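A student in our group prepared the protein record below, which I am reviewing. Thanks in advance; the entry in question is below.
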Amino acid sequence: NNIIDGVTKIVNKYGKIIVLEDDLVTSPYFLKFMNEALEFYKDEEKVMHITGYSYPIKQNGLEDTFFIKPASCWSWATWDRAWKYYKKDVDYYFSVFDKKMIYDFNLNNAYKYFDQIIQNKQGKINTWAIFWYASVYLQSGLSLHPKESYVQNIGFDDEGTHCKATTVYDVELIKEPKINFTTNLIESKDGRKAHEDFFNSLKVSFVTRVINKLKKIIK
């Protein structure tokens, strides 16, 4: 609720916002990238979200910046024109999303984003970011992502609210201030495929899951 309220107040006053949480480390060029992106796309209604973080994806064929549908909350920016569509209403999303939309929303089931909405419905978690992605998605909005990351998330140290210890999201911060903004205002097929491949690579095989379960039973 604090994030939703804070973002709303800032965009209503200033027309735009850059959001960081306390477990993020930024490149020296982070603010330059975010501010210039906010200016470059300020009048592009289809562009609703900017992120400074890039997953450790394969970069072959990717432009310096590209668009995909998912909106990453590990450092991000937006405008009042986009945030006005934000809606945190579980029942609403259950009513408008069909199976085909959920499959696309989940990057062809590479990552179960919609499960977070289900878990909010069940009261297992209470989050805000998945509803932002859903809000952007239903407006056919796009999220700008850099090929190389301007942000490192150090929150996966087993002390986070909704995450366990892991190094799979570690990245190298960009080392030079090269900023080439794409003017191709459609979802990047290469960018989407790179994210699908990355998320699929994190899935534990059925055999491994069975072995781990047996180990727990034996213990």
